[in-house]
Amino acid sequence: MLGRTAVSYLRKQTQVHILKRGFADQVAQGSEKLKLSFATPTSALRKDASVDMVVFPAATGMMGVLPQHVPTVAQLKPGVVTVIEEGKEDKYFVSSGFAFVTQDRTDILAVEAVRLEDLDKEAVQRGLSECESAINSASDEVSQAIAQIGVEVHSAMKSALES
Amino acid sequence: MAAMQRSFMNVVSKSRNLVGSNPRTPSWSLNRNRTADQALLLATENNTSSGVDFQVRFASLKAVRSRMRSVASISKITKAMKMVAAAKLRGVQARQESSKPFTAGLKSFLKSTFSEIEGKETSGNHLIVAVTSDRGLCGGVNSNVVREIRKLLHEDKQNQYAILLCGDKGRDGLQRLYRNLFVVTIKDVFRAPVNFAQTCVVAEEIFKQKFDSVAIFYNHFKNAISQVVTRKVIPGLDIILKHAETFDSYEFESDMDSAQTLTDLYEFQFAVQLFDALLENATSEQAARMSAMDNATRNASEMYQKLTLTYNRQRQSVITGELIEIISGAEAL
Amino acid sequence: MVQQWRAAGLTYLRYANICADFVRKALKEPKRTEALSRTTFEMTKSEWSEGKVAKRESLTQEAERNNVSSSNK
């Protein structure tokens, strides 16, 4: 049914959302692939690729999508998108965006997506501290909101690099 | 002979009046002196026989030569512009290809939701977003957009319209008749490659306006020779919220209530669709400029060849005339 | 109940671009410079009223980025 890596991956992610599937009994054994497009405004990380599974950071928690998923629109929050192909995992950190899931395909539209190895650990820590102190010293609502966003994004980057 | 002299002088004087007479066409424009060229060609053709004034013949030789020089330099400019446009087209086309999965990712979702709602409400306040370039010499792309907008405004007398313009050419084309409908004009949109952050700023300017629906007019890039004016209609946020049940076939994963989620989604899809329109228009602009400059270069070289033939014929008739005069002068002695 | 940034007057687009910019700034060089320069812009906006230009304003990424970083000081 699911590949071995996918199953062990799910076991690791204790916050994985309940997988919602329709027509579960009709899923073929291991031959069913998910059609995935995962793109930013400037680059296509996956274009109509056939993958086993994709996991992305929905606002309600990490969400795993297998073929034949119910139609879903997920608002993304800063976090890690994992594409599972041929048993291998490919990870990207996304800033925000939306994911559109239908029976036939999944489209993940992120405003920015970077590889984890391209993130600078010290810069993330520095940014997190700066934003945390900015919340206290903020002079108006807008600056405070921006600082809060900064804390959210930097915390997510920090935990992505640590896991 | 007097009659021939009179008709020749008519043609030459007409051509003199046309040279540099029209202040609006720029000095490097090929259109400016087309009638003057034809007058010159006619005049010199009529002179190949006999007895027309010696000085007038020399004057037309000089005129033809200077005309040839200006046509040659124009063709150099248009050829350079064509190569620049071709290089820019390659760049922007590559960027558009990379962005396709992003802009296309929404399409099936929008088809089953927004497009359904769009058909239901057609009256009210409409905002027209005109996407044009800032610079000209790009064929029909800007005039096509302006024409479609004019057609819409002329035909629809019931609804209220306001116009938001990206690009100076749209402003120039519409301001004579419709300047009272202008709300915002934005310049230098296409100066640097279009990016998503920039598109979001333009989208926010649009959101500041009140409207029931938005119609974006831009040029869809089919290929290097074909760019088609397209109208993209996006209903306003209030209309979308009013028909929120259209989204019932989708589950929403969000930590906010449905109105909030729909609002966030609305703003996002708007920016993605606007990004698509701006990219397509940028590509269309370069393609149209490349093909317009290509045509101009071809026209200029045709004109140069015609002028060369005329020049040679005229030069030979001058020499023949001189010989005849020398010989008849010698005989008189 | 709305998001804090929505209550402060920001749109989702502004939120999304602020998030994206934070991620870009945390990149290692040279990807950081490339990503930041890829997302700059400089436009001029004119607001019209009754057929005439009422106000002119420049819209630049530099200004946006300065707003964000000044709030971090």
Automatic annotation (TrEMBL), chain A:
It is an enzyme of class 3 (hydrolase). The keyword Metal-binding does not apply. Keywords: Hydrogen ion transport, Hydrolase, Ion transport, Membrane, Mitochondrion, Mitochondrion inner membrane, Transit peptide, Transport. Transmembrane segments: none annotated. Its EC number is 3.6.3.14. It holds the Pfam family ATP-synt_DE_N. It is found in: Mitochondrion inner membrane. One of its GO terms (molecular function) is proton-transporting ATP synthase activity, rotational mechanism. One of its GO terms (cellular component) is mitochondrial inner membrane. Residues 34-113 form the ATP synthase F1 complex delta/epsilon subunit N-terminal domain. InterPro entries: ATP_synth_F1_dsu/esu, ATP_synth_F1_dsu/esu_N, ATPsynth_dsu/esu_N. Belongs to the ATPase epsilon chain family. PANTHER family: ATP SYNTHASE DELTA/EPSILON CHAIN, ATP SYNTHASE SUBUNIT DELTA, MITOCHONDRIAL. This is F-type H+-transporting ATPase subunit delta. It comes from Galdieria sulphuraria (Red alga).
TrEMBL record, chain B:
It holds the Pfam family ATP-synt. One of its GO terms (molecular function) is hydrolase activity. It is a peripheral membrane protein. Keywords: ATP synthesis, CF(1), Hydrogen ion transport, Hydrolase, Ion transport, Membrane, Mitochondrion, Mitochondrion inner membrane, Transport. It is found in: Mitochondrion inner membrane. SUPFAM superfamilies: ATP synthase (F1-ATPase), gamma subunit. CDD domains: F1-ATPase_gamma. The keyword Amino-acid biosynthesis does not apply. One of its GO terms (cellular component) is proton-transporting ATP synthase complex. Belongs to the ATPase gamma chain family. This is ATP synthase subunit gamma, mitochondrial. It comes from Galdieria sulphuraria (Red alga).
Automatic annotation (TrEMBL), chain C:
The keyword Nucleotidyltransferase does not apply. The keyword Hydrolase applies. Its EC number is 3.6.3.14. GO terms for biological process: proton motive force-driven mitochondrial ATP synthesis. GO terms for molecular function: hydrolase activity; proton-transporting ATP synthase activity, rotational mechanism. Residues 52-73 are annotated as: Disordered. It holds the Pfam family ATP-synt_Eps. It comes from the Eukaryota. Keywords: Hydrolase. CDD domains: F1-ATPase_epsilon (cd12153). One of its GO terms (cellular component) is proton-transporting ATP synthase complex. Residues 52-65 have a biased composition (Basic and acidic residues). Belongs to the eukaryotic ATPase epsilon family. This is F-type H+-transporting ATPase subunit epsilon. It comes from Galdieria sulphuraria.
